[in-house]
TrEMBL record, chain A:
InterPro entries: AAA+_ATPase, ABC_transporter-like_ATP-bd, ABC_transporter-like_CS, ABC_transpr_MalK-like, ABC_transpr_MalK/UgpC-like, Mo/tungstate-bd_C_term_dom, NA-bd_OB-fold, P-loop_NTPase
Name recorded for this polypeptide: Sn-glycerol-3-phosphate ABC transporter ATP-binding protein UgpC
Keywords attached to this entry: ATP-binding, Nucleotide-binding, Transport
Protein family according to the UniProt entry: Belongs to the ABC transporter superfamily.
Disordered as annotated region, ranges: 357-376
Polar residues composition bias: residue spans: 359-376
Domain of life: Bacteria
GO molecular function, one term: ATP binding
SMART domains linked: AAA
TrEMBL record, chain B:
Protein name per Swiss-Prot or TrEMBL: Carbohydrate ABC transporter permease
Location in the cell: Cell membrane
Membrane spanning stretches: 7-28, 66-89, 101-122, 134-153, 182-203, 236-259
PANTHER family from the UniProt entry: INNER MEMBRANE ABC TRANSPORTER PERMEASE PROTEIN YCJP, MALTOSE TRANSPORT SYSTEM PERMEASE-RELATED
Keyword set includes Transit peptide: no
Signal peptide start and end residues: none
Pfam families: BPD_transp_1
Membrane topology: Multi-pass membrane protein
Major site of localization recorded for this protein: membrane
Automatic annotation (TrEMBL), chain C:
Record-linked InterPro entries: MetI-like, MetI-like_sf
Alphabetized SUPFAM superfamilies for the sequence: MetI-like
Main location: membrane
Pfam families to which the protein is assigned, alphabetical: BPD_transp_1
Organism placement in taxonomy: Bacteria, Pseudomonadati, Pseudomonadota, Alphaproteobacteria, Hyphomicrobiales
Subcellular location, record wording: Cell membrane
Spans traversing the lipid bilayer: 30-51, 102-123, 135-155, 186-210, 231-253, 294-314
Keyword entries, A-Z: Cell membrane, Membrane, Transmembrane, Transmembrane helix, Transport
Family: Belongs to the binding-protein-dependent transport system permease family.
Keyword Transmembrane helix found: yes
Organism for this UniProt entry: Microvirga splendida
ABC transmembrane type-1 domain sequence ranges: 98-310
Record's protein name: Sugar ABC transporter permease
Length: 376, 274, 323
């Protein structure tokens, strides 16, 4: 078991800098997920930790030891690849035994470990098969099994579920979570799927353009995004953003004037915000309510029925489109005019730099239904 | 109209097939005729006279020639593949400085005119005492097969997934183990293809074999056939030559029929993808 | 690996140190280790002999005694004795062989390209027995050149040859033709045999290119009712052009060094002698290592120039990212 510490880790390919000094402290036994849009450097960061790419600058520590110069096999890691990367010419048993064999383990030891992993993953009947005789889900298990037998201090997963179909993805996700519970090993997991990130992670690392945007628990990221990027990236449907100007500042709240003419007192720490400053107000679709006399009015453009809830896409004028999620069946049709109320305690304010103003209410809303529905 | 097109198409196919096969067919027919029979043209085989086939082995060391060819070709293939696969791993998968230049040089060597090295090679072979020996021919033929073996294997190597290699590194493999335990088995089909091409090149090689051997016992098949003479200097033993031609062509035809797909894959990997 | 254990609180000088991990270093090291044997052998059996050949071309070496020679500068190429120009560049036989080779290359590669396209189009059509047909056309390519030359020699025999017999029976000729001995027909005969032997190579390379073309453009052309001949010239040909050029270049480089075929088919006849045959004749038959090496060097330079032009033209892309 080991912690993983990154200190100002940088990576360049030729002149192109893809990782700009990442500092990260992954605790022993923690399940950390790297998310971000494609090209954000999340896979590169994982490969740096694995030792498959050279670190251009900074230091990487695994279990207290600086491993910048160590070969992958000496870092105490195991990796599960997106394409599984099983050895096509070896059967399942040999695929799992290969690493141990290279490490010169005894035959009995290898056998015990392989069979234990096979039992754990329920692939015992497949041990004699070649990878091409296996289904995608079975290959994935073998790939995980190959990682398990190495008994690594840190498991690395590179988008391991992206080649599986939806049903299998959910099932395997649950198994990986169980594996973490069972082994309590440190795990680092790369994905572009925020549902995987939200459900698996102890902490999520949001990456964007080679930089860390925010590190936190899934709910921290959801409820208190540190900036505009994280707010827009986490949560589905995406958070609504409305450009406004600061009308006034009070103790523990910021008064903003909405485009429609109304004002709203948002309960956040002003932190030096001046009246007249342009800010972005963010609010999740669940917290926009249709009411008789809301702060904004708009025309319903499109209705999407999802069964348990429905989405309204509302044109609030000047090309501003707001998404509203309401429970049950829709009671409005496309073309009708509605009035929208913004639940001010759920509003976020972002300054021109994208940085969020800290929320006054530190609590995550216990009654919020949104997490359950967004993870579905 | 449609029927006419059909008939035209099949006539074309038949013409191409006939053009390709007729010389070999005619060689077979001629090889079964001897003496004065050869002075008249026959389009169909009349009887199975094997006297030419006996004569090939009787009048000269043709069995030895075949054995020489097999030894040279087999050794050349083995050496080319052994050297080629390790080099192809380096060229195909490792971004080292100077790789492009080296690879380009090797490709250029594979296009070398053989005659350009003839006098230098002659000197080399003689100074090592390898003139008129099989090792001398092996060395010379390696110049023909090694560059394109490296080249073709490199193109195949590039197609193997990167992640398999990385998985092996995570498992603790050294580059050498990756080549031996992971890529060698995966490259087996490509190695068969490349090996076949190298075998055919060596089996057919003529200029070096003609220049670097002196006695009939040391010749490989091509110079042996080219220099076959009859009882008198003016009369060529056509029946015997045809029999010899059929004998050495049959294994090649068998290889082609069995490995047709692999050979085509190798040819196109070397040229089109280059 | 030496600095593997560094304390977290000790400041590590970042930029000064080598940035290569042990994996990269071991891969780079093994890259050179893996190519070293091949490079050494190639330097030994290709580079060194080539260098020696070029060196010999500036000497008066003799095949029987390769150790005793003198440096004579460019005299093998061109020399002036009492106002008379001598040397390779003044030898009409050399220029004849150059002309033969160029003519042979141009004519045979042209014919092979056209026929190769036809055969490739045939093989690209779906018909029963296509696989067998593909194997059949490979046979001429795989037969040793010496053997095919001998087979054709026999078929082209002036008295007992089947070709003359056929043409006489069909009434196309009145008297047997001495195909390989007659200066008018000899080089054409060489071209014909070369076409027979190497068209399959062309056809298979073109076929590979044809099979990479997307099928839907043909369906689209069919829907639009475009005549197949037009489709071929307007769609197929432009699309396979890169592959075609590569195939032509490969074939041309091969044809320029032709030796076996001409040597066996027509012996050292002046009418058909190629550059390679000329060089070997000087070198082995006349034992004139100096002149022979000079001819070899010129052949090398001609082909090297073509290779460089080809590579520079960017048709052959090298050293791209191996991943």
């Amino acid at each position: 078991m080991a912690d993983v510490i990154l200190k100002n880790v940088q990576k360049s390919f030729g002149r192109a800098k893809v990782i700009h000094g990442v500092d990260l402290d992954i605790r022993d036994g923690e399940f950390v997920v790297f998310v971000g849009p494609s090209g954000c450097g999340k896979s590169t960061l994982l490969r740096l930790i694995a030792g498959l790419e050279d670190i251009t600058g900074g230091d990487l520590f695994i279990g207290g030891e600086r491993v910048n110069d160590l070969a992958p096999a000496k870092r105490g890691i195991a990796m599960v690849f997106q394409s599984y990367a099983l050895y096509p010419h070896m059967n399942v048993y040999d695929n799992m035994a290969f690493g141990l064999e290279l490490a010169k383990s005894s035959k009995a030891d290898i056998d015990a470990k392989v069979r234990e992993a096979a039992r754990l993953l329920q692939i015992e009947p497949l041990l004699e098969r070649k990878p091409r005789q296996l289904s995608g889900g079975q290959r994935q298990r073998v790939a995980i099994g190959r990682a398990i037998v190495r008994d690594p201090k840190v498991f690395l997963f590179d988008e391991p579920l992206s080649n599986l179909d939806a049903a299998l993805r959910v099932q395997t996700r649950i198994e990986i979570a169980k594996l973490h519970t069972d082994t309590r090993a440190t795990m680092i997991y790369v994905t572009h799927d925020q549902v995987e990130a939200m459900t698996l992670a102890d902490r999520i690392v949001v990456l964007h353009a080679g930089r860390i945007e925010q590190v936190g628990t899934p709910l921290e990221l959801y409820h208190r995004p540190a900036n505009l990027f994280v707010a827009g990236f986490i949560g589905s449907p995406q958070m609504n953003f409305i450009e406004c100007t600061v009308a006034g500042v009070g103790p523990g709240e910021v008064l903003v004037s909405l485009p429609g003419g109304g004002t709203l007192a948002v309960p956040v720490q002003p932190d030096g915000v001046q009246a007249g400053e342009a800010v972005t107000l963010g609010i999740r679709p669940d917290h926009v309510r249709i009411s008789a006399d809301g702060a904004l009015t708009g025309r319903v453009e499109l209705v999407e029925e999802l069964g348990e809830n429905h989405l309204l896409y509302v044109d609030a004028g000047q090309g501003r489109r707001l998404t509203v999620r309401e429970p049950g069946d829709a009671r409005h049709e496309a073309g009708s005019t509605v009035s929208l109320d913004l639940a001010r305690e759920f509003c976020h304010l972002f300054r021109g730099t994208g940085e969020a103003l800290r929320s006054r209410t530190n609590a995550t809303s216990p009654t919020s239904p949104d997490l359950a529905s967004s993870a579905a | 109209m449609k029927v006419l097109t059909r008939i035209g198409f099949w006539l074309l196919v038949a013409a191409v097939g006939l053009f390709a096969l007729f010389p070999f067919y005619y060689a077979v027919v001629s090889s079964f005729r001897s003496g004065a029979e050869l002075f008249s043209v026959a389009y169909l085989p009349e009887r199975l006279d094997l006297s030419n086939y006996v004569a090939v082995f009787d009048r000269q060391p043709f069995g030895q020639n075949i054995l020489n060819s097999v030894i040279v070709a087999a050794t050349v293939v083995a050496l080319s593949l052994a050297l080629g696969i390790t080099a192809a791993y380096a060229f195909g998968r490792i971004a080292f400085r100077g790789r492009a230049l080296l690879l380009m040089t090797i490709l250029a060597v594979s296009m070398f005119p053989q005659v350009a090295v003839l006098s230098g090679m002659f000197e080399l072979i003689r100074s090592f005492g390898l003139y008129n020996t099989l090792p001398g021919l092996i060395l010379a033929n390696l110049m023909l097969t090694l560059p394109f073996t490296i080249w073709v294997l490199t193109t195949f190597m590039r197609e193997l997934p990167k992640e398999i290699e990385e998985a092996a590194f995570v498992d603790g493999a050294t580059p050498w183990i990756v080549v031996r335990r992971v890529f060698l088995p995966l490259m087996a089909p490509a190695a068969v293809t490349t090996g076949l091409l190298a075998f055919i090149v060596s089996w057919n090689e003529f200029l070096f074999a003609l220049t670097f051997t002196l006695t009939n016992e040391r010749r490989t098949v091509p110079p042996a056939i080219a220099l076959m003479t009859g009882s008198s200097a003016y009369e060529l033993p056509w029946g015997t030559i045809m029999a010899a031609s059929v004998i050495v062509t049959l294994p090649i035809i068998a290889l082609v029929l069995v490995f047709q797909r692999k050979i085509v894959a190798g040819l196109t990997a070397g040229a089109v993808k280059g | 690996m030496t600095s593997a254990v560094a304390q977290a609180d000790v400041p590590v000088p970042h930029q000064a140190r080598g940035r290569r991990s042990s994996l990269t270093r071991s891969r780079l090291r093994s890259a050179w280790l893996f190519i070293a044997p091949s490079l050494i052998i190639l330097a030994f059996i290709a580079g060194w002999p080539l260098a020696r050949t070029i060196w010999f071309s500036f000497t008066d070496a003799d095949l029987n005694n390769l150790n005793d020679y003198e440096f004579i500068g460019f005299e093998n190429y061109l020399a002036n004795y009492d106002g008379e120009w001598l040397g390779l560049l003044t030898d009409p036989d050399w220029w004849h062989s150059v002309w033969n080779t160029v003519w042979f290359t141009a004519v045979s590669v042209s014919i092979e390209t056209v026929l190769g396209i036809v055969v490739a189009l045939i093989l690209n059509a779906a018909f029963p027995g296509r696989g067998i047909m593909r194997a059949i056309i490979l046979i001429p390519w795989a037969i040793p050149t010496v053997v095919s030359a001998k087979m054709w020699n026999w078929m082209l025999h002036d008295q007992f040859g089947v070709i003359n017999d056929m043409l006489l029976r069909l009434g196309l000729i009145a008297a047997p033709i001495t195909w390989t001995a007659n200066p008018d027909t000899a080089l054409w005969t060489v071209v014909m045999v070369d076409v027979w032997k190497t068209t399959p190579f062309m056809a298979l390379l073109i076929l590979a290119a044809l099979q990479m073309l997307p099928g839907d453009i043909y369906e689209a052309a069919k829907v639009d009712g475009i005549h197949p001949v037009r489709v071929f010239f307007r769609v197929t040909l432009p699309l396979i052009r890169p592959a075609l050029i590569v195939a032509i270049v490969f074939r041309a480089l091969d044809a320029l060094r032709v030796f076996d075929l001409i040597y066996v088919l027509t012996a050292n006849s002046r009418d058909t002698m190629s550059m390679s045959v000329y060089a070997r004749q000087q070198l082995v038959d006349f034992q004139e290592v100096g002149v022979g090496s000079a001819a070899s060097t010129l052949i090398f330079l001609i082909i090297a120039l073509l290779i460089v032009v080809t590579l520079a033209a960017g048709r052959v892309r090298l050293g791209e990212d191996p991943r």
